[in-house]
Amino acid sequence: MAHFSTRESVDADLQACGFETVEHAGTDGPSGFFPPCSGDLDEDAYRDYRAYHLRNGSRAAGASSHCLAVARRT
Fold this sequence. Notes:
Elements: H1 7-16, E1 19-26, H2 35-39, H3 43-56, E2 67-73
Antiparallel strand pairs: 1-2
């Protein structure tokens, strides 16, 4: 079973529970859709990809299988 959420629905759920959204981030980015490719990375290429992902995770939210919503209590 899968559950697909939009940013708007996550924001509404958080707001209903007394939180405000700080940021949305993609946790796996597009590599989650291509596991054979990411498994072939050597250590240097993996470090480069990881650094890229950490810099661009919030922009990759739409291209990620899983996302993270960072929120604070209002």
